[in-house]
Specification:
This protein has 183 residues and is of the alpha+beta class. The protein contains five helices and six strands; from the N terminus they run ββαββββαααα. The protein has a six-stranded antiparallel beta sheet. It is globular, with a radius of gyration of 17 Å. It binds adenosine-5'-triphosphate (ATP) and magnesium ion (MG).
Length: 183
């Protein structure tokens, strides 16, 4: 499974619709301070379901919507879509048969938020389910941010275990069990 395209519109500094192709296994993003590099990482974590504004470097969840600039008016909504190449079958389950999987999130100024899987409306939970055990998720190890290495090195064994379980692919089953037990 490989992230192959990121599409953004109205998200933070990406006011105009932008398509960022990631054609190879390694892509570097370079640019001057404040040009929007970290906003791309925020976008990925946001689509994955991150719902704590401070983890997206904002105060409110609607802060991800383009807030206007000296030359542009604010916009009413933000969308981000991630397209995954799943030809290796890295994503399993209901959507595993698709060679390409699209995950999209939209938020409007009134706070209304929606998620889409291959174009169909879905729950945040469905997105989380899709990626459980793949290492990808709003807070999973596939995104290593500044300071996270030392956090992992210094983590308590029980916190470290969460990452190991995700890497081993068993977090999916533990999550299911938790859900069943809570019913
Ligand atoms: P650095 O090299 O300093 O880490 P960067 O390329 O990572 O910079 P970002 O943090 O991604 O930069 O982008 C910051 C820019 O995004 C700022 O100019 C900020 O004004 C703009 N920005 C963030 N949120 C919004 C928003 N909701 N509306 C408009 N612009 C925004
Ligand atoms: Mg940055």
């Amino acid at each position: 499974m490989r992230l192959s395209t990121i599409k953004l519109a109205g998200f933070k500094s990406f006011v105009d619709p932008a398509t960022l192709p990631l054609p190879t296994n390694m892509t570097g993003v370079v640019g001057p301070n404040g040009c929007g590099k970290s906003n791309i990482i925020d976008a990925i974590r946001w689509v994955m379901g991150e719902s704590v504004a401070s983890r997206l470097r904002g105060d409110a969840l609607t802060d991800v919507i383009f807030a206007g600039s000296t030359t542009r008016k604010p916009v009413g909504q933000a969308t981000v879509e991630l397209v995954f190449d799943n030809s290796d079958g890295g994503i399993q389950g209901e959507y595993g048969a698709y060679a390409e999987i699209s995950v999209k999130r939209l938020v409007a100024r009134d706070g209304q938020s929606a998620y889409f899987l291959n174009g169909s409306r879905c729950r945040r939970r469905d997105i989380a389910d899709l990626f459980l055990g793949t290492g990808l998720g709003p807070r999973s190890y596939s995104i290593i941010e500044q300071g996270m290495i030392s956090q992992i090195v210094e983590a308590r064994p029980e916190d470290l275990r969460v990452h190991l379980e995700e890497a081993a692919g068993i977090s999916r089953y533990k999550d299911r069990r938790r859900e069943t037990e809570s019913r």
